[in-house]
Specification:
- The protein is an alpha+beta fold.
- Helices cover about 15% and strands about 35% of the residues.
- It folds into two domains: about 110 residues, Rossmann fold; about 130 residues, Probable inorganic polyphosphate/atp-NAD kinase, domain 2 (Tumour Suppressor Smad4, Sandwich).
- Helix 1 links the parallel strand 1 and strand 2.
C-alpha cells in the first residue's frame, strides 16, 4: 500500500484488514507531523515480523526509514509496537534514527545484498578456501563454511553460532563454521569483527558450497569461484519513538549473554 507520504508493507498472512491498517497508519503519521513540525520523507511502515521487514528492505533497495509494528503470531524482534493499537498510546518524546548498513556480496562480479547475514556452507564436506582481509590478514581455512553478520543480524543466526551482539553499525562480523582443529589449523583466526571499510576476498579452493543470504539459498558456489564481501554504500534506518526501545529489544533474547 502506498500514498504520497509513506508506504505500508503488510504481512500477506495478516488477518487485519487493509482499511483498518491504512486508517491507523495515517492517523499516526499525521500525529508525528504535528509533533515534529516537519514531513518525514521516505517512511515505510511494516506490519508483521522480521521476515516482512526483510521483504520490504529488498523491495525498496535497502534504503529509507522503517517503522515496524508487530503482527499476531510474529516475534517482531525489531518492532517498536506490539500491535496497531499501540500507535495510539505511544508517548513520543523524540524520534531516534538507528542506522544499518547491509552487506554487499560479489560472486563472479554479480552483486547481492544482505540485511542480516551471508553464509557459505557445505553440511557434508569440509570446504578449503582462502580468506584475505585487505591490509590485515590472509589465511587458508578448512571448515564447514563461513558466516558474515551485520549489526541487524547479530541477534539472529550469528548469536546462535556464538557470535557477539553488535551495537556499532560501522562494523560486521565473521565466524568460521565448525572449523577443523588439527595442529596446523591452530593459528587460523576463527572469528573477528571487521570495519565497514575492510574488504574480504574468498577463493573456494575445493568442494562446492551453498551461498545463503538472509536465510534464502541463492545458488551453489563452485570450486574456483571468487567471492568479495564488504559493507555496502547504501543504508537504511529504523525509527524509534522511545528511548527504551533498544533495551526492550535485547530483553527478548534474555538481555544478551
Amino acid at each position: 500500500m502506498k500514498n504520497t507520504k509513506y508506504t505500508i508493507s503488510l504481512n500477506p498472512k495478516s488477518k487485519i484488514s487493509e482499511d483498518i491498517v491504512e486508517k491507523s497508519i495515517d492517523k499516526f503519521y499525521n500525529h508525528l507531523f504535528k509533533l515534529t513540525e516537519e514531513k518525514l520523507n521516505d517512511v515505510h511502515f511494516v506490519i508483521g515480523g522480521d521476515g516482512t521487514l526483510l521483504k520490504a528492505l529488498n523491495h525498496f533497495g535497502f534504503k529509507g526509514k522503517y517503522v515496524v509494528i508487530k503482527d499476531a503470531g510474529s516475534l517482531g524482534f525489531y518492532s517498536d509496537f506490539d500491535n496497531l493499537d499501540d500507535l495510539n498510546n505511544v508517548k513520543i518524546n523524540s524520534i531516534k534514527e538507528e542506522f544499518f548498513y547491509p552487506l554487499s556480496v560479489l560472486v563472479n562480479n554479480k552483486e547481492y545484498f544482505a540485511a542480516n547475514e551471508v553464509s557459505l556452507v557445505n553440511v557434508s564436506k569440509v570446504i578449503n578456501f582462502s580468506m584475505d582481509i585487505k591490509q590485515h590478514m590472509k589465511q587458508n581455512c578448512r571448515s564447514s563454511g563461513i558466516l558474515f553478520s551485520t549489526k541487524l543480524g547479530s541477534t539472529g543466526l550469528s548469536l546462535s553460532c556464538n557470535g557477539p551482539i553488535i551495537f556499532d553499525e560501522k562494523v560486521y562480523y565473521f565466524n568460521l563454521l565448525a572449523p577443523l582443529l588439527f595442529a596446523h589449523d591452530e593459528n587460523v583466526v576463527k572469528s573477528g569483527v571487521i570495519s565497514n571499510n575492510d574488504i574480504v576476498k574468498i577463493d573456494i579452493l575445493n568442494e562446492d558450497a551453498t551461498l545463503v543470504i538472509d536465510g534464502n539459498v541463492v545458488f551453489n558456489i563452485k570450486s574456483g569461484d571468487k567471492i568479495v564481501v564488504t559493507s555496502s554504500n547504501v543504508s537504511f534506518s529504523l525509527l524509534h519513538f522511545n528511548e527504551k526501545t533498544s533495551k526492550k529489544r535485547y530483553h527478548k533474547i534474555g538481555g544478551g549473554r
